[in-house]
Write a structure and sequence with these properties.
The protein is α/β, with parallel strands linked by helices. 27% of the residues lie in helices and 25% in strands. It folds into 4 domains: 4-117 and 244-313, 3-Layer(bba) Sandwich (FAD/NAD(P)-binding domain), CATH 3.50.50.60; 126-241, FAD/NAD(P)-binding domain (3-Layer(bba) Sandwich); 333-448, FAD/NAD(P)-binding domain, CATH 3.50.50; 454-537, Oxidized Rhodanese, domain 1 (3-Layer(aba) Sandwich). The longest helix is centred in the last third of the chain and has 16 residues, at 539-554. It is globular and about 90 Å long.
């Protein structure tokens, strides 16, 4: 028996659900309503139109109503706003935005995919600046055309999330003077503070003025006024503060709203009404690792949810196991990716969990390859089980491959033992024979077994200020690239002949360039009777990245004689 299925929202979740529904049945009538003029556009690609990487705004549109109808027999009605749901009558109320006509459409099953809307707070004086948000093709086309005709090139981007970073970078590529303002002390919350310093430096190095820890207080004529009193000139202001789930329809229909303020759904993405489903940025999901409800505004989960809804409507029950929020971003010359838990989330949620951290830097491919580059990798694991909880990677190479591996391990409830034993593809242009994820597994199991102790680079400033005993085991020639102030040079090649210079009655902290040689030094000392030695994980390279941006921004005294970023 054929069904009439109505979908509200024609972008990622809605369009994907429609296509899957058609693949499951040729008999069903499928109607998709979209408030905007386009369906099935690549909203994740929107910022790249500003730099010309995607030259025409129309290139962002992947399908149009005519193709949907001819290829799939799906009726896509654009410029059609759904303004109400009558659950009892099983019909929706629609306003044609071109004619103003209001009419009703019945349904057997209804899928809500309205997405999330940019947050626009009532900041005093907001009418005194030209503001923009980025949600659809019309938005990005309007912004692009406006900035092209600016008499002056100053643009401010407010918000350091994914959209804010991508908009700022693409505006910079297009030749604008960009100021990026973030009220928190860091951008990109999926990354921990120690890791994101790499991206802070990269943004500043590429000419974007990055202001952190200072929120917007008010606007004056073409000026952003910050809480600190600092004023930023801007002839265009992009608000990328965040998004809020579109729940107006659901609330009006008295569907259950979850703890997070998004639409509640069951394991099959069915709302509190058995004939109404919801997917995408508008719904609440469960975080696999925290067990708590969460909002995840990512395209991947939306597409999976859409497929699951189509299957359930066609009689199949799919178990929604929750999400871990894997994501990636390109920031000028660096790539970043993350998955699962990070330390900030564990602290914010006050999770009662014992964990430890692996932080290592390793070449992303065989070092003699001309494009080999350091990759910074951070792995969180549970103690004492070794269960993998999350990871972050930043580098110039393929970080997504590594984080995809960790995401897979997390979803399979994987452990450090399994991680170190993974057999992965290898060739010199792609990776090292023991990939960085394998190394993370080795280091993690060593830590779990108590074979050595470590401190991370965020503690080194305190060690220097307290006059702790720090040993630099790099070779003498490497000191010209910079050294930690007050450190003692004992190269690894001389260590076994100079152990008498290392005290046993106080903590000793060892470092090299990335932490591998200093780990070997720690083990040599431990095997020679020392029980007071610690490896500085990340070592001088990691410390340079960690300290640099704050040294410049805060104009504070460096703890190194020079930085080394290679």
């Amino acid at each position: 028996m054929s069904k009439k299925i109505v979908i509200v929202g024609g972008v990622a979740g809605g369009a994907s659900a429609a296509a899957r529904l058609r693949r499951r049945s040729e008999e069903d009538q499928i109607i998709m309503f979209e408030k905007g003029p386009h369906v099935s556009f690549s909203n994740c690609s929107l910022p790249y139109h500003l730099s010309g990487i995607i030259q025409e705004a129309d290139d962002l549109v992947l399908m149009n109503p005519e193709l949907f109808l001819s290829q799939y027999r799906i009726e896509a009605r654009t410029l059609s706003e759904v303004i109400g749901i009558n659950k009892e009558a099983k019909e929706i109320e629609v306003r044609n935005l071109q004619t103003g006509e209001v009419y009703h459409e019945t349904y057997d099953k209804l899928i809500l995919s309205p997405g999330a809307a940019p947050i626009v707070p009532p900041i005093p004086g907001i009418e005194r600046v030209k503001t923009f948000t980025v949600r659809n093709v019309v938005d990005i086309d309007t912004l692009n055309k406006f900035v092209k005709h600016l008499p002056e090139k100053e643009v401010a981007v407010i918000g350091g999330g994914f959209i804010g970073i991508e908009v700022a970078e693409n505006l910079k590529h297009a030749g604008y003077q960009v100021t990026l303002i973030e009220a928190m002390n860091q951008i990109l919350r999926p990354f921990d503070y120690d890791m994101v310093q790499i991206l802070h430096k990269e943004i500043a190095d590429n000419g974007i003025r990055l202001i952190l820890g200072d929120k917007v207080n008010q606007f004056e004529e073409n000026i952003v006024v910050l809480a600190s009193g600092q004023k930023v000139k801007a002839h265009a202001v992009v608000l990328a503060i965040g998004v809020a789930p579109e729940t107006r329809l659901a609330k009006a229909a008295e569907l259950t709203i979850g703890e997070t303020g998004a639409i509640w759904t069951d394991d099959n993405y069915r709302t509190s009404n058995e004939d109404i489903y919801a997917v995408g940025d508008a719904i609440e999901v469960r975080n696999v690792l925290t067990g708590q409800p969460a909002k995840i505004s990512l395209a991947g989960p939306a597409l999976k949810q859409a497929r699951a809804v189509a299957e359930h409507i066609n009689g199949e029950h799919t178990k929604n196991k929750g999400y871990i929020a894997s994501s990636a971003i390109q920031v000028f010359g660096y790539n970043g990716a993350s998955t699962g838990l990070n330390e900030a989330l564990i602290e914010f949620m006050k999770m009662d969990i014992q964990y430890d951290v692996v932080h290592l830097i390793l070449s992303d491919k065989v070092g003699i390859m001309p494009d080999a580059a350091p990759m910074h990798f951070k792995l969180l694991f549970e103690k004492p089980t070794g269960r993998i909880l999350g990871a972050q990677a930043i580098g110039r190479g393929d970080v997504t491959k590594r984080i995809d591996i960790i995401a897979t391990m997390i979803k399979m409830n994987g452990t450090l033992e399994q991680l170190k034993d993974l057999e992965l593809c290898y060739a010199p242009p792609f990776s090292t024979a023991k990939d960085i994820v394998n190394h993370a597994g080795y280091i993690g199991t060593n830590l779990l077994q108590g074979l050595f102790r470590q401190v991370r680079v965020d503690k080194v400033r305190g060690l220097v200020e307290q006059g702790e005993f720090i040993v630099d085991v790099r070779e003498k020639y490497e000191l010209e690239y910079g050294k930690i102030k007050g450190s003692i040079s004992i190269p690894l090649s001389e260590l076994r002949d100079r152990m008498s210079e290392i005290p046993k009655d106080r903590p000793v902290y060892l470092h090299c360039r990335t932490g591998q040689r200093s780990y070997n030094a720690v083990m040599a000392l431990q095997n020679s009777g020392y029980d007071n030695v610690f490896n500085i994980t990340g070592s001088f390279l990691g410390l340079s990245f960690y300290e640099y941006f704050n040294d410049q921004a805060l104009k504070r005294e460096p703890i190194v004689t020079n930085y080394n970023f290679n």
